[in-house]
Every structure is written in structure tokens, then in C-alpha cells.
Design brief:
Elements lengths: L10 E5 L4 H12 L3 E6 L2 H13 L3 E6 L5 H15 L4 E4 L5 E2 L7 H29 L1 E6 L12 H24 L3 E8 L1 E2 L3 H4 L1 E2 L11 E2 L1 H13 L4 E4 L1 H12 L1 H5 L2 H7 L35 H7 L1 H26 L3
Parallel strand pairs: 1-2, 1-4, 2-3, 4-6, 5-9, 6-7, 7-11, 8-10
Helix pairs in contact: 1-7, 3-4, 4-5
Length: 337
């Protein structure tokens, strides 16, 4: 396993840093002492976020960029190198979604989603790897439980996340083959309370929302920054997502029958607020959290345990030992004299 710098000694590039998971990660990284490079389409919002981080004693620069354009992604890397001498971790977060039946979505909308979600990740990964081959570091891509599952009414989003998983796995294997000092991590969040639904292109007659269970974006940020220091192959954020993935693997037909419920769970009671969303043009940015109705989980016990398996194994071992001891004592008390 390649040695990784502590967060306070790292330069971290984050795409999609103007809202949601990207913004939560940027703030958390800066608080830990990392120098952060913020990238997104919304230049004004990024400048404001960078000033916020600087005012709190952190170090940040903003780069307005559309990750669907390779030249823009190259400009992110060039700015990071010019400002900080390079970078140690690159995180591809930028992503959008579309709500609606696949047959109703225009080709132009499908193509724009894939350009951002898939090609933005491809460009970011390949450009980051070229730099990291020399100095070593971490590439972290944001997939989704939709990398392993399908959700009706978000079909092309799921297709993009499946593709990101395949691309990330293949790239990792090639880097292992050549002995490159780069760790490659795929983060697969469950539903996360970010502005993603509000920023989505929406073909439904209802305002969209996320199917439960839903977690806070800081839980994903925690997993990302863990992987920047302690390389992991895959991290699933949210035990609920892991349970659904297991159901689909065990009984795919039974999972398919959940389609009506999944569709219903993606619709709020009110009418759409902004059907065009931010698919083709930057929308409202600057917020890490969304306004998901209902309960939002602060942490995932499953994810925290998966990030610290040794400690978890010790706790489980102690628990089993204690249970065995109690059972043994109970049997002794029940023995006839």
C-alpha cells in the first residue's frame, strides 16, 4: 500500500465543489488543513466559497470549469499546479440527474448528462493520473449505489454511474499493472440530502426527491477524506444502499417488483419548481444540503464500521467472547447439584 500524506499536507482538487457533496468535502478538507482547488461551472459561487474558506484560516482557489470539456478539466490541473505546485488527491464529484421515463427524455438531455457525469469523470481521472504518476496520490471517483442498482425514472443517471464503475475498475487494473503509485477509490453513496433533485432536469409532474433512506452529505465527505489518507478500493456510504444491493444480487426479480414504490418515493406532493434545472446551465449553487422531506440520517454505522474493520472486528470479538462467557456461566448455574 502506497504511503499517503496527512490531510493537512495535501492539495486536493474537487470538481462539483459549488454544492452538495463537493462543497461539503471542500469545507471538511479545508478545516483539516488541506489546500483545496474548487472547480465547477459557477465561478461567482466558487469565489464566494473560496473567500469563506480563506476567512476561516483555510487555503482555497476557485476554477470555473465545465468538466464535460477536456480543455476545462486540463485548466483545473494547470491552475492547481501553478498555485500549489501540484496536487495529491483528485476527487471527481460533479454530476447531475434527470427525473422521468427514459422514452420521454430528449437525446440532447441524455447526452448532456453523460457528458457531465461520465466524460467529466473520464477527463478528470486521466488528467489527474498523468500528474499523479510522478508524485503519487489518490484518485477518488463518486459513483453511486446506482453503480450496482437501477432506479426507474433516473435511468440515464444509473447508466452513467454503471459506466463510471466500469471505467474506474479498468483504470485501477491498468495502474496496478504498471506499478503506478496511485490509489483508485470508487465511492458509492446511497441517497444523499443535497440539492441534486432540485437541480435535476425534471420531466415528472411532481417536484422530485430522493428515495429513502437518506444521509447527510458530510457522511460522504468523511468517506472521501478517509480514502485520501487510507486508500480503499470501494466504499458504500449508507447501510440502506448496501441492503438494496444485496437484495438485487440475491433476488433480482424481487428487486424489479419494487419499481412502483421506487417511482412513488421519488415524487413530492408539490408541483415542479424548476423543471429545466441545472443540466445545461448553472443553477442555484452554494448549498451543501437539500430540503429532503422526512428523516435524514446523520451518519451510517455500516459505513463507519467498514472504514475501520480492525476496530470493528475487535468489538465483535469482545462481544462474542462476553456472550460466550455469560452463556457458560448460565449453563453452570443450571447444572444440578
Amino acid at each position: 500500500m502506497h504511503h499517503r500524506k496527512k490531510l493537512r499536507d495535501q492539495v486536493i482538487v474537487i470538481t462539483g465543489a459549488s454544492s452538495g457533496i463537493g462543497l461539503a468535502t471542500a469545507r471538511m478538507a479545508a478545516q483539516a488543513g488541506a489546500r483545496v482547488v474548487l472547480a465547477a461551472r459557477s465561478g461567482d459561487t466558487l469565489e464566494r466559497i473560496a473567500k469563506e474558506i480563506e476567512s476561516q484560516g483555510g487555503h482555497a482557489i476557485a476554477v470555473a470549469a465545465d468538466v464535460g470539456k477536456r480543455a476545462d478539466v486540463q485548466a483545473i490541473a494547470d491552475r492547481a499546479i501553478a498555485a500549489f505546485g501540484g496536487f495529491d488527491t483528485w476527487v471527481n464529484v460533479a454530476g447531475l440527474t434527470i427525473y422521468g421515463p427514459l422514452g420521454k427524455v430528449t437525446d440532447a438531455d441524455h447526452e448532456r448528462l453523460l457528458q457531465t457525469n461520465l466524460w467529466g469523470t473520464v477527463y478528470g481521472s486521466l488528467i489527474a493520473v498523468e500528474h499523479l504518476r510522478e508524485r503519487g496520490g489518490s484518485l477518488i471517483n463518486i459513483g453511486s449505489v446506482a453503480s450496482d442498482l437501477a432506479f426507474p425514472f433516473q435511468g440515464m443517471y444509473c447508466a452513467s454511474k454503471h459506466a463510471i464503475k466500469g471505467f474506474t475498475d479498468a483504470l485501477r487494473m491498468e495502474l496496478v499493472h504498471e506499478g503506478a503509485p496511485i490509489s483508485v477509490t470508487l465511492i458509492k453513496p446511497t441517497s444523499i440530502d443535497t440539492p441534486l433533485p432540485h437541480r435535476a432536469r425534471n420531466y415528472m409532474d411532481h417536484e422530485p426527491m430522493l428515495p429513502p433512506p437518506v444521509y447527510r452529505p458530510e457522511e460522504v465527505a468523511h468517506a472521501i477524506l478517509h480514502a485520501a489518507v487510507h486508500p480503499e478500493r470501494d466504499i458504500v456510504v449508507g447501510g440502506g444502499g448496501k441492503a438494496l444491493t444485496s437484495l438485487k444480487e440475491f433476488s433480482p426479480g424481487a428487486y424489479d417488483l419494487l419499481a412502483p414504490a421506487i417511482i412513488a418515493f421519488q415524487k413530492r406532493s408539490e408541483t415542479p419548481r424548476d423543471p429545466k434545472g441545472a443540466l445545461h446551465n448553472p443553477g442555484q449553487d452554494g448549498e451543501a444540503h437539500g430540503d429532503q422531506p422526512g428523516y435524514v440520517r446523520r451518519t451510517s454505522t455500516y459505513t463507519r464500521a467498514s472504514l475501520h474493520p480492525a476496530a470493528t472486528a475487535i468489538r465483535i470479538g469482545l462481544g462474542l467472547a462476553a456472550t460466550a462467557l455469560v452463556a457458560s456461566q448460565s449453563r453452570r448455574r443450571r447444572r444440578p447439584l
